[in-house]
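Worked example

This section walks through a single chain of length 153. The input is the sequence exactly as stored; nothing has been trimmed or padded.
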Amino acid sequence: MKKRRIVYTVLFCTILLTEIFIALFVHDSFVRPYIGDVLVTTLSYCFCRIIIPKGVRALPIYVFAFATVVEVAQYFDIVKLFGMEENKFISVVIGRTFSFGDLICYAAGCVVFFAVDYVNEIFNSSMSLLKIALPIGISFYTFQILSYTIDLY
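Given that input, the structure is written out below as C-alpha cells.
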C-alpha cells in the first residue's frame, strides 16, 4: 500500500511539472490544448490514488465528472462571476474558455487509467501508470528538444 502511494506521488509530481512546463513554455495548437487536457485528468487521478491507493473502481468516472463540472464552470465563466478575473493563477487553474474538445481529451485521459486499472484487476498484475507515463514523458521531452534544435537551424 505504501509503495503504491509512493509510485502515485512520483507520478503526480512528474505530471504536475510537465503541466507547468506546458503552461509556461508550450504555445502551440496541439500539445497545450490536447495533451495538457489528457494529462490534467491523469494528474487528478494520481492525486486521488495517493489518498486512496486501491479500490474505488469508479474513480475514472468520478475524475471525468469532476473535469466536466470544471469545464461547464468555464462555459459560465465562473472566474468572472466570482470577480476573480484579475487573479491570473485562478484564471489559469480553473480556465476561462469552454470547449467540447476538452471533454473528449478528459475522456481519453480517463480511458487510459481505467484500462490500466482493468488490466491490473483482470490479470492480477501490477502494471502502473508510471511504466506508461514515464516513457511518454521522456519521449515528449526528447521531441521538444529536437524540435527546438531543428528550429534553430
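What to look for: Helices lie at 2-25, 31-51, 59-75, 78-81, 88-94, 100-123, 129-152.
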